[in-house]
Each structure stands twice: as C-alpha cells, then as structure tokens.
Amino acid sequence: MKRIFTKPGVHPYDEIQWERRDVVMTNWRDGSVNFEQRGVEFPEFWSVNAANIVTTKYFRGAVGTPQREWSLKQLIDRVVGVYTRTGIEHGYFASDEDAEIFDHELKHALAHQVFAFNSPVWFNVGTKSPQQVSACFILSVDDQMESILEWYKEEGVIFKGGSGSGVNLSRIRSSKELLSSGGTASGPVSFMRGADASAGTIKSGGATRRAAKMVVLDVDHPDIEEFIETKAREEDKVRALRDAGFDMDLGGKDIVSVQYQNANNSVRVSDEFMRAVEKGEKFGLRARLTGEVIETVDARELFRKMAKAAWECADPGVQYDDTINDWHTTPETGRITASNPCSEYVHLDNSSCNLASINLLKFLKDDNTFDVPNFVKLTELIITAMDISITFADFPTEKIGETSRAYRQLGIGYANLGALLMATGHAYDSDGGRAVAAAITSLMTGVSYRRSAELAAVVGPYDGYARNAEPHKRVMRKHAAANDDLRTVGSMDAKIHSEASRQWSECLKLGEKNGYRNAQASLLAPTGTIGLMMDCDTTGIEPDLALVKFKKLVGGGSMQIVNQTIPRALKQLGYQQEQIEAIVEYIGEHSHVVDAPGLRQEHYEVFDCAMGERAIAPMGHVRMMAATQPFLSGAISKTVNLPESATIDDIEQVYQEGWKLGLKALAVYRDNCKVGQPLSAGSGAKKEEAAKEEPEVKVIEVNRPTRRRMPNQRPSMTTRFTVGGAKGYMTASSYPDDGLGEVFLKMSKQGSTLAGVMDAFSVAISIGLQYGVPLETYMSKFVNMRFEPAGMTDDPDIRMATSVMDYIFRRLALDHLPYDERAALGIFSAAERAAQQRGEDPAALQETVDREALAQSAPIEEKPKVEAAEQSPVVKELTLESHQRFTADAPLCMTCGTKMRPAGSCYVCEGCGSTSGCS
Q1: What CA dihedral angle connects 505, 508, 513 and 519, to 10 degrees?
Q2: What is the CA radius of gyration of the chain?
Q3: Taking Cα atoms as reference points, which of 321, 486, 330, 468 lies closest to residue 409?
Q4: Domain locations in the chain?
Q5: With contact defined as beta carbons under 8 Å apart, do 372 and 495 qualify?
C-alpha cells in the first residue's frame, strides 16, 4: 500500500480542525421538530448540509441514548475498522505497516470528502444489521409460477433494505401463447401489476422513498407493444380521474389506483431491430419457448410507438442489448439481460454491485492541473477496499450471494465532473470537455483493472474467471483500443491520457499473467446522497444545474451564492480580477451569463448548464455519455432532458444516436410530460390531443358580458408575502354576497417600472373578475408560471413558488375557492396536507373566513437593515433555493417537503439527502 495524503506516525484525524454543531430538522408541514441531535462533531470545512445529511442518514443508534453515534470519527472508524480487519484476516496486506497505511488513507480520504462508499455501507457496516454493502441488484424470472412468486418475494426483501433491483421478464410466455394445459398465458405485463402493487405497499408501509425497480422486456417479445404503452395509458387515466375531481396529486389518496408507477421500464433493443428501423423493414416477434416468429411488425412503427410513449410519460427507456453483451466479460456464464433501476449496473442475473464515487474536484490543483499521480493511488486504494467488502458482505438472497462472491462485481465511478470542466474553462458540450471526461474515465478504469490483476496475484482471480478468461481479456483489449483511439485536445487531457495508456498497457500484461479479481470494475452512478455528503456541486456525469446555488447557514436559513467554480473558470480563461467581480455580480443578479459585462461570447458555452438561459442541448448530453462509455465496465445513470416543445421525432433521434454512438442504455425525460407530477401543467399532452381532433365549425350567438361593479364598501384582506426574497403586498376584495371581485398588488417603489406593471396587471385581473371570468380560469393560466423571483416563500401553506404570479394565484385559490375545486388543481393548505398524512378528510377542515373582521391596516413588521456585505447582489440572504436548481416535474421530498433535483436517472433532496433511486 502507498501513502497518498497521510504521514507516518501521524493519525489523519489529528490534522483536521474539528468543531461541534447542532443538527435540528423541522417538519415542512407544521414546523415541528422531527429530528434533533446537538453537539455532533465534524471537520470545520464540512458544510452544514453535508453534516446534517450524515447525522440524520448515517449515524447509528437511537437518538438520545449513549449508543448513538455523535461524531464523524465514530462513523468512519466503524466502517473502516471492518474493512481493515477483514483485509488482515484474508491476507490482502503484505505487512502490518501496509494495513496501517490502508486504514489511515481510507480515513483521511473519507473525512476530507475525496470519495465515498454507497449508502448501504454507511447504513450497515460495523452494525448488528446484516453487512449489506450493495445498492444495486439484478434478479431473474423464469416462465414458471414458482419463479414469478419468488421474484415478488426477492424484490420485497431488497426494497425493505432500502435498495433497488432490476429484472428482465422476457422469459415469461406472452399473452399470445398457450399454456401446457391448453389455456392462454397471462403474459409478463399482467404479472407486472402484482409486482407494482407489492412495491407500492412496501414503499408506503416503510421507507419514505419509493421502491426503486427496473423492468426490462426484449423488443422481440410478442407483448412488447402492450409493454411499451402500459405507462402511457396510465397517464391518460391520471388525467381523466384528475379532471373528474379525484385527488391525483403526488401522495394523493386516489393516486394508488394508477398502476405501474413504481418501476422504470426499458425495452431491450437488438442491432437487428435497429437496422430494421433504419431500413424500414419488417421485424419478427418470437415465441418464448420455441423461438419461432409468431407475428411480424413494421420496425419503424414499433420504434415510433416507443418514442411516442416516452414523449408522453418518459417511459420506456432503451437498453442496447448487442452493445452491452459485446462488452461482457463473462459471457460463458450467461448473457446480460437486465440492469439495476438506474441502468448503470449491467451484468449477470442474480448478482449485485457495490459502488463508490470519487470527488474529481479534489484533484484539481491550484495551478489548474489535474493531480494524476494521487488520482491513480486513490483509485488503487478504493478498488482494494471495495473488493475486501465482498469478502465480508451479506446478501439478501443466497443466489445473489453466490453470484456476487464468484464474480466480485465492483462499481467505482466519480462525481463533480461538471464542476471540474467549468472550473478548468471547458464547455460541457465541447470536444475539449469530452476529451477530459474520456481521459479521466479511461484512467480510472485502467487503474482499477490493473489493481484487480494485482489483487488476483495475491488472493486469486474471481471464481468464474477460468471459464471466462478469453472473453474477459478480449474486453480488456477493447478498452485499451478505445483508449488508443482517444484524441486529445488540450494539455490537461493529454497528460491524463498519457498515464491512462501506461496503465492499460500494464493492465493487459498483469491480466495475462494473473487473471483478474473482479468481473466488473467501473460505472457512473447518480451519486445522489453521497454527492451531498462530499459537498459536490454536480452529481455523476451531470453538468451543473444552474449558475447560482444556495448554501445553508449555521443556525438556520440559507443564502444564494454564485457557484464558486465560476470565478476560478474566469481566471483560467484569462480575465482580470475586476472583470471577474463584475461578471460574478451580474450572474448573481440574473442567474445567467448572457450580456455579462466584459464576458466574450465565445466563453458563454463554458457556463452552459442543464437548465436556465443557455441550457445544454439534448444531444450534448448524449455525446458526453458516448465519450465516456467505452471506458466503463458498466453503463451510465443519466436521463437526457428535453424541453416541453420537443417532438416525438426528437426522441427517436436521441434513441437512434445513442445506438450509433455505442451507448449501453439511455433514458429521456420531456419537461412537464407527466400529468401526475406536482407543478405539471401537462400542456404538451393536451396540445397533442387537441391536434388529433377534427375542427368543427359552428355559428353561435354570444351574449356580451356585463360588468358587475364593486360596491363602495366591500370586505377585503391584505396579505404580505415574500417570494424568492422579493417582498410584496396583495389586497383582495370580495363582493358582500361572496365572490372575489378585485385584486391589487404592490411590489417595489411607487413610480418604478415594476410598480407600474403590477398596477396595470391588477386592473386587468380585477376588470376580468367583474366581467365574470371565473377565478379557476386565472388559476389554470398563472399557476406554475415560471420566472424570477422564484423559490421559497414565507407562507406556511405555499412553501415553494415558481414565480410571483404562481404564488398570488395559489394564495387566491386557498382563500377563495372551495376544497373540491382546489384539489383538482393540486392546491392544499398546510393543515389539509397534514390531514392527508393522518388519513383524515381534508374537506372537513374548511372554515368560513370573516373578511370584514380582518383589519386592512395591520402594522407591518419591518425587517432590520442588513450589513453592506449582505446587500451584495452576489450573496443575497434568502429563505430558499433558486428555482433553477430544479425541473418543474421533480417530485417533492416526502421527508422534508423540499423540491428534489435530478441525480442521474433518479432524484435527490438537497435538504435531507433522501433519494428516489437505489444509490
């Protein structure tokens, strides 16, 4: 073992400045405290958010008891102690000194957020629980009822443990085939209902995260069309039930009637099928038992249906079967048929993979060069530790345990790629950015397999290596050949690539001599919770979401700051300090770089993000995936986001390019495509439905409306509000016999442009109300409208608003519409949400507001003036995170109520660390 960061005779903890903190988490519904642990100990450089997440998620023991962990030292010691002891017991280390170096380097790297193991390691290792270290599982199902029922059971056990699994159902006979008894088979889609119900029950009965699962079906299965359209049909059901007044909001009491919502669906497409699509040929669907063609379909029409369903509801994704199996190291044991829920782990049935991710930004030195030597050493350390974990690990089923111990699949990956590229002046969607990403990925995998070959010399190759030696070595040569084909663009990637070439050369030599300890070494996971644990700006392979972010403050609250990688990037691009300050100030005010003072247009692309004014094009994401895929044993967890205006043709193009560029799996998401998601208007689907209908011309007479003027004296209510740090006042007046008739809004100083616009808007809305325009009509137009200022509000009933207009009309709905009408729009008060959680009827909470008793001139509490530094547009004190950190369709966290953000194919909550996926 080699020292990387530590010194002989000095414990790594002794070089850290530690501090005590209090962690108090409140309930988003009613403000009550739902977690409290005071005096926890963390390094002073750890953010408040990272410390909160580790305390609440990973510290073991009952809160308030002496057994409860209270220091990061205890957590790391608990985990690393098991790794070190196991390594000593099984002969991994040549000497006691090597064991000490391993122990100290792991502790240093974890405490300094250089890398992190996946969550199950932190949950389970060193506790009395089973020592489960894997987050990803793949199951198998045969065409037998006993096997199908066993699948239900195995999934349940995995979900209960907080992990996720995937399965391919293509062995199950289709609904177009006969049973041995003479009856017709049910087909895999039918059995999916039972599995979906089971997953939904386990989710609601235990964890706050949904059960993460993947269901795969081969494209030549006779039931493929039904499988493709399954979730899209359910979206139609959601729309119909919602319009009929049922509560179809996320977490609503009626959403449980919708099926197939607990799984990601993917079609396993073959090269034969994709070539048939290109040529416009017919394609045969085959019987499961005999393999004979029982139906012929038009390949392009079937492909079109896949793209249309994905356009409507984001499912199904695609997995490229021939590409996956062409890079398969153990084909003599069996084909790869499925993946884990996020599609990054692709290997044998009944197997598992434990993950660890490196924080790439930790290797960017002050002179903006990449620390290649230390990256190599750390990769060696992590692979050694991950292999040791399989030795002591427990598994949910005996079959999974047998396969995992025999093939020892590992999943090393990284996070903060997007931040690294921006900090070094590389655009994410550029040849230079892709070259850096490819070189780092190649180096990481080359070192991993080289270390795997070294481990094989010490403790032996994996049990299944002998029968798979030739195909495994063939895949190693494919990786090395891809590395040889990599074309460098700049000095940074050239240096990394040079070392990668040396590592692959050594890997091939050692592998030929020793074999390999691991059948799989690398993949790119979502890095949701562990990315927050490491204080990463970006997750997995993702670009930055936005140029501004929020930072939690000690003692509560948060403030909005410009990403710290931006000044570093500007300096790297040659800007002077005065220019950097002006540009950063502009970004703080506008959240984008367009027209920033002094910033050259050719540098705009460096600051492109996943969202915002200059969002990266969908194919930019696909090209980045393609640049790194040849250097990964597994695949990549990433969803290609498309704008709401994207067409079915656009999705077809993405799926076709993914195949041509050699990806293993691909998923897409079109903004606002899911009706059942919060803050989703579903306008795209409605437009498509409208386009299908033939126009019907009618001549009708319309009575002109008459204006019902407000009386001189009328009841009214004034609301003071804050949206995204911007303060305003709203006065809403009603007719004496009920019914809203007038709205006045005040923001900014009298005489300003904003004040004039708000006055004109108020008059327009008020006249419309008095002419009989229903308030519900305004709701449908202005709720979910998005523009700055946006974010958290000071209203307990409306915690998050996408704009001032979104807040105003949600508040008006709560004040002036009955519960049934609001429920159809998904607008509930805090008390109603709490009642839903208790299983009570929220409609029973309705009270009549005595508007005449409300004083119009209640004293308004002025906020104390803040210091000059706090008034800077670069750092503004806020109660929320910028709306640009999230997509409109991201779900609300069921733990803390914060809007979640994408992390690969999953979502992660920055408030508490909860994830919607398996890692």
Answers
A1: 140
A2: 29
A3: 330
A4: 1-112, 716-853
A5: yes
Question: Would you list the DSSP string of 776-812?
Answer: HHHHHHHTT---SS-EEEEETTEEEESSHHHHHHHHH
Pick the closest to residue 715 from 740, 733, 689, 693 (CA basis).
733
Residues with catalytic function = 340, 342, 344
CA distances from 854 to 438, 506, 694, 744, 849 (A): 64, 79, 51, 16, 9
Give the pLDDT of residue 684: 39
CA distance 377 to 385: 13
Q: What integer pLDDT is reported at residue 749 of this predicted model?
A: 67
Amino acid 272 reads E
Cβ neighbours for 671, distance < 8 A, ≥ 6 positions apart: 641, 642, 643, 644, 887, 888, 889
Cβ distance 890 to 910 under 8 Å?
Answer: no
Mean pLDDT of 59-88: 96
Could you give the count of Cα atoms lying within 13 Å of 857 in the half-sphere of its Cβ? Answer: 0
Q: Where are the alpha helices (DSSP H) in 90-223?
A: 96-111, 119-124, 145-160, 188-205
The SS3 of residue 21 is strand
pTM of the model: 0.79
pLDDT tens figures, 179-229: 777 677 889 988 888 777 777 676 543 333 455 789 999 999 999 999 999
Look at residues 417, 412, 444, 413 and name the one whose alpha carbon lies nearest to residue 360. Answer: 417
Are 435 and 487 in contact by the 8 Å Cβ rule? The answer is yes
Which pLDDT band, with edges at 50, 70 and 90, does 551 fall under?
low
Q: Which two tokens stand for residue 488?
A: 């460098």
CB of 147 within 8 A of CB of 153?
no
Contact 636, 524 (CB under 8 A): yes
